[in-house]
Design goal:
- This protein is α/β, with parallel strands linked by helices and 501 residues long.
- The chain has 3 domains: 13-263, 3-Layer(aba) Sandwich (Rossmann fold), CATH 3.40.50; 283-411, Isoleucyl-tRNA Synthetase, Domain 1 (Orthogonal Bundle); 424-500, no CATH class.
- It contains 17 helices and 16 strands.
- The strands form 5 sheets. It has a 5-stranded parallel sheet with strand order 5-4-3-10-11, sandwiched between helices. A 4-stranded antiparallel sheet has the order 6-7-8-9.
- The longest helix is centred in the middle third of the chain and has 22 residues, at 313-334.
- The two termini are 40 Å apart.
- 43% of the residues are buried.
- The protein binds one RNA strand of 75 nucleotides through α1, α7, β13, α10 and α12.
Length: 501
RNA sequence: GGCGCGGUACCCAAGUGGUAAGGGAGAGGUCUGCAAAACCUUUAUGCGCCGGUUCGAUCCCGGCCCGCGCCUCCA
């Protein structure tokens, strides 16, 4: 069974396929690097990541391009305010963006396309539109797209142009363009933009590209006139993606993207998480409060992409516990030797097989991550029960591990890298003089003077010796001391395990 | 006003025309030197409200109430 995915354009769930028979050519609108991203931004990239991983699970090869918008009004404004060029200003936010992507376990696309490195492609696309009279230049030297020359305008967002007549919301007199809905393709250079190195000399005249033309030009340059899939947050549907369609299809006279994928918003207290609302959390905020990167990933993926997710710190704690349970289970099954034979093995093997099939089927059914998760927990409980009763065979354990590997190829939370991401966030906070934002327990557990792994191991060994001598008072004292420093011990037949809480 | 989405147990959440997955939390229990982990039991005669279709609806249709998003930069 192939991956079935909701297509915003058709309004239906449709199979996703590579039209060239080789690789899925897909484009995802990336970040504008004027500031740190918040976790609402990353929700989109996380679900695009699951889409990537599921497509691969279904046998699709990928050619995924993501843009970086490294020139825009906010970048120009902030760069000017700090006396830097736009490149100097935005570099640190691009670095931070990829650090956050890594901490959240998001795979890199096959190609990253920076707007400022693709100006010629944008200029020539505008020239193609100008040659048809669809792009026109205004007195100040800017270029606009003439919407009434593209009859399909509104087909993606299902907007009726007749209901958006000129003058309805926009005062035409403020603009030097033919119709209020016409959107900017090229913005004529202003003096301060030349100072920030945010202007380019092209046949269109000095200036910089509009946001919409960036994506059209880069998608077509890297992936061709007609692409398989285009992804982004739901807010980009209109006008951004609508404008991309208009630009690309008006220029090429071919369908631009066959399949459109939109991820719905993350809410906070019932409202959209947004910079402008001030109700946002960055990944760094949360790591410095002591939440784990894996829990954030798991929470944001647990609600399917077509539903809004109301983010709360409580739900993040729940996710932490759920990830812990999965990790404990994974360690238990992976690190123990299981007998060749076990009673009731056929029934258990069948249950695992069903769980495995259910996991894949759920993902292939429009990326139903909630149901996929549930399939794994079903197996977890049954296998733990069998293991408790001595009824887990080596074969069943291997099948279980195969499912866990498949699960982790999508969810990517079983391997514990949380401490290193928290340490990195702490180092960043120190460098940025933001230590006041760090929760005390994070400082204690991960900051200077916190226990190293070797010190922990030594204490654990000392406690084991004390236990062997039946000096339980000393053993319990060590356990208590470690727990206060965020280290939880677990005794088992296979020895003592410890983990950070 | 136009377009789109949603209202399921204490919280998060899946789902189907035939009688409610899963996670978290709470309570009780088993196991263990004690813990932790794990397991067992337990928490919706009901899926926003009112009608309709049907042998039967949480799931289909109609109306209503509530919430969110887009219609302007925005993941």
């Amino acid at each position: 069974m192939a991956l079935q995915l909701f297509n915003t354009l058709s309004g239906k769930i449709e199979p996703l396929f590579a039209s060239d028979g080789h690789a899925l050519r897909f484009y995802c609108c990336g970040p504008t690097i004027y500031d740190y991203g918040h976790i609402g931004n990353f929700r989109t990239f996380l679900h695009v990541d699951v889409l990537r991983r599921t497509a691969r699970l279904s046998g699709l090869a990928l050619h995924h391009v993501m843009n970086i918008t490294d020139v825009d009004d906010k970048i120009i404004r902030n760069a000017a305010a700090s006396g830097k060029s736009i490149g100097e200003y935005s570099a640190r936010f691009e670095r931070a963006f990829f650090e956050d992507m890594d901490a959240l376990g998001i795979e890199r696309p096959e190609e990253i396309a920076r707007a400022t490195q693709n100006i010629p492609a944008m200029a020539s696309l505008i020239e193609r539109l100008a040659a048809q009279g669809i792009a026109y230049k205004t007195e100040d030297g800017s270029w606009y797209f003439r919407i009434n020359r593209f009859p399909g305008y509104g087909k993606l967002s299902k907007k009726d142009l007749a209901g958006m007549e000129d003058g309805a919301r926009v005062d035409l007199d403020e603009y030097d363009k033919d119709a209020a809905r016409d959107f900017a393709l090229w913005k004529a250079a202003r003096p301060e933009e030349i100072a920030s190195q945010a202007a380019w000399d092209t046949a269109l005249g000095p200036g910089r590209p509009g946001w919409h033309i960036e994506c059209s030009a880069m998608a077509m340059k890297y992936l061709g006139d007609s692409i398989d899939l285009h992804a982004g947050g739901e807010d980009l549907m209109f006008p951004h993606h609508e404008n991309e369609i208009a630009q690309s299809e008006a220029a090429s006279h071919k369908p631009f993207a066959r399949h459109w994928f939109h991820v719905r918003f993350l809410l906070v207290e019932g409202k959209k998480m947004a910079k402008s609302e001030g109700n946002f959390f960055t990944l760094r905020d949360l790591l410095l409060k002591g939440y784990r990167a894996s829990a954030i990933r798991f929470l944001l993926l647990s609600v399917p992409y077509r539903h809004q997710l109301n983010f709360t710190l409580d739900s993040l704690t729940e996710s932490t516990n759920a990830v812990d349970r999965l990790r404990t289970f994974n360690r238990r099954i992976r690190n123990q030797a299981w007998p060749d034979q076990a009673p009731a093995d056929d029934a258990l093997l069948e249950l695992i097989r069903k769980g495995d099939a259910g996991f894949t089927a759920a993902l292939e059914d429009d990326l139903n991550t909630a149901e996929a998760r549930a399939a794994v927990f079903d197996v977890l409980r049954a296998v733990n029960t069998a293991a408790d009763q001595g009824n887990l065979s080596r074969m069943a354990a291997e099948q279980t591990l195969a499912l866990l590997d498949k699960f982790d190829a999508i969810f990517a939370v079983l391997e514990d890298h949380d401490a290193e991401h928290t340490r990195a966030a702490l180092a960043w906070a120190e460098a940025e003089d933001r230590l006041s934002q760090v929760a005390p327990e994070v400082l204690e557990r991960f900051g200077a003077g916190s226990l190293t792994d070797a010190q922990i191991e030594a204490l654990v060994a000392e406690r084991t010796r004390a236990k062997q001598q039946r000096n339980f008072a000393r053993a319990d004292a060590i356990r208590k001391e470690l727990l206060e420093k965020g280290i939880l011990l677990e005794d088992s037949r296979q020895g003592v395990r410890w983990k950070r809480t």
